[in-house]
Amino acid sequence: MKTTTTRRRAAAVVAGLSMIGALAACSDDDDSGVTTTVTKTVTEGAEAADDGASDEASAPTEDSDATNGADGDGSIASVVFDGDVVTDRFTTVQCRADNDSDDNDNEFEIDLRGENRGDKVEIDLDLTNDPFVEGLSIDLDDVEWESEDHHEREATVDVDGDTYTVSGEVEIDDDHADAGQTATLEVEVSCA
């Protein structure tokens, strides 16, 4: 009886390993759903150090459509919030295309992060023939501001090569005591 149990266990282990091997052999190696994000830290007035590495991997090709944008790093030209220039509060830019094949959209995301914990700007764009804002938000001084649908319809997007200029209205999150207060947010970044 003990030999039968041992053989059954061995057979179950072999069958399980065979299943895993078969599934791995049939897997799809297509990377179309993978998003690669490159982060670059920039300091106002400072040039990026040349480490001798080639930037050709992240640079768009001559044949690429400017409205498609390129995944990778970028630089901040300006961030103006409610009339105040707050560009120096943000040091990191991430630009990436939404590669979800399930919703078949042309979303392009731009995220700015600050050195102070919680300071961030998030911009979601649809880069179809006539680019528009799908989402706009800023977290600054522990207050969350975000766009509502009607703000997004009125927001403007200008795409000039790798430079994106977005302007729109945001309002304080519903969970805050000053909920509903609005402010303008204007951001210009280069995603190259």
TrEMBL record:
Residues of the signal peptide: 1-24
Swiss-Prot/TrEMBL keywords: Cell membrane, Lipoprotein, Membrane, Signal
InterPro entries reported in the protein's UniProt record: LpqH
Segments for region (Disordered): 43-75
PROSITE patterns xrefs: PROKAR_LIPOPROTEIN (PS51257)
Keyword Lipoprotein: yes
A Pfam family hit: Myco_19_kDa
GO CC entries: membrane
Name the record gives this protein: Lipoprotein LpqH
Organism annotation: Candidatus Corynebacterium faecigallinarum
